[in-house]
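S.,

Sequence below, as promised.
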Amino acid sequence: MSGFYYFYETITIMQSRLIVKNFGPIKFVDLDLRNVNVFIGPQASGKSALAKLYTIFKAPRKFLKNGNAEKNLKVFKEVLEEYNIASFLKEDSEIEFYSPLHDLTYKNDIITFEPKLSDEIQEIEKLKNDIPININRIRESFIKIRPVIGINYLEVIDILGGYNDTENPMADTDSAVFVNLNLEKFTEILDVLKKTEINLTTNTVLYIPSERNFSNIIKYAALTLLTNNAPIPKHILLFGAELEKTAVKEIKLDFLQKNLIYKSINGQDKIFTDSENSIKLSEAASGIQSALPILMPVISHDPDSYQRSFVIEEPELNLFPVAQYELIKLLEATRESKFDGESRTIHTYTTHSPYILAAFNNLLYAFKVSSHWNTKRIKHENIRLISPAKKIVEVDINPDTFSAFQISNGNAESIFDREKGLIIDNYIDDVSDEMGDDFDALTRLML
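The prediction came back faster than expected:
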C-alpha cells in the first residue's frame, strides 16, 4: 500500500504508512498515519522511537547522498545517533515508509529510496519540448500532483496567470489558466516544483522533544553548542536553534493563567502576569516552560505559506488536565487554512495522558455535531442553521484525518473507531477504572 492524498469535501487527507520490525522495544507495528496522529502507551514502550523514525523517514534527503549506498547508510546511522535511537537498530531490523512524496525502506542494512514526486516532475519535464500538443497532459499532470505539493500549487497558478476562484484558488483547475503556458513559464513552474520537492523531503518536519524545558535555557547558544560538539543530544540542540529562529514576539497564555502573556523584548524572554509585572522565562512555572516551546514554532508557522509537520512529545508535561485540553485546542486551531478549511500541516503526538485522548475525542465529536447541523441546513435551504458546536468547542477535527494507537508490548493497536469517528471510550476510561477498582477494594476493607 502506498501513501496517498485525497479530497473529502474541502479536507485534504494526508495518508502515509510506517511499518517497523525489530527496532528497539518495537517487535512489529503497521501504522496508518494521517493529518493528526496520537501514540499513547506506558514508558519505554517505543512511542518516541516511532515518532523519531517518522521524523527521519519523512525527511530522507537529510541523509541520502547522491545515490551512494554506503554513504547513505553511514549518514542514516548518524541520524539515528542524533535522535538517541542508534542502539535500537538490530541485524534483523526493518523499516518501511510509504507516502505520496516518496517510498523509503531499510532492510538487511540496505536503504532503498523511491522519490515518487521527483519522478513525476521528471515525467512532466519531458513534455516541455512540444507544449501546445502536450497541454492537456501537462494540465492533468499538474492536477495530479496538486494535493501532494499543497499550498505551493498557488505559485504554479500564479505563474500561469492567476486564479479563477478568488475564494478558493486551490480548487482552480480550469483549462483556461493553461492557455498562455509557454516555455518560459513552464521552466519557471518546473523550478517551483523541484524546490518544493526538495523542501518537503528535507526541511518539512520539526521534532519537539520532551526535554524542551532545557531548550529555553540553551536556545541562544544552541548553534555554538552544535559547532563545538557539546555532549547534548543533537536533536535537542537543533530544536533549540529552531526556537532561536522563531519570529513570534508575543503569545497569550490565558489557558494557563488569566492575563498571562509571553513577550520577547530585546532578546529577553519575559512572562508578564499583568501589564506591568514580569519575570524571566527561566523563573516561570514548569508548565509555562514546557508549553511555550511547543507554541512558539507552531504558532509562528503559517499553514498557508508552506507545508510543515510537527512531532510533539508529551504535550501534557507539567500541565493540569484542563490546561492539557486547552493546549490541544490551541495547537489544532493553528492547522486551519483559509484556502481549504484544514491545511496540510501534520501533527503527531506521543503521550501518557488519557486526558489528551479525551481532548481529541471532544474535537472529533465537535466535527460530527457540526456535520449533523450542516446536513440540516441543506435540507432546509431557506433556513440558515448555525451549528452551536463552535460555541462549545471552537475547533474540530475531521475523523477521516485522524489516527490513534496504543503502543505496548512491542506492538501497536488502533484505539480509534473509524466507523464512529471517535477514540474507543474503554481505553480512555481504563486508567480511571483501575484506580477506581483499587479504591473500591480499599473501601470494602473498611466494612
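The first helix runs from residue 47 to 58.

Coffee later?
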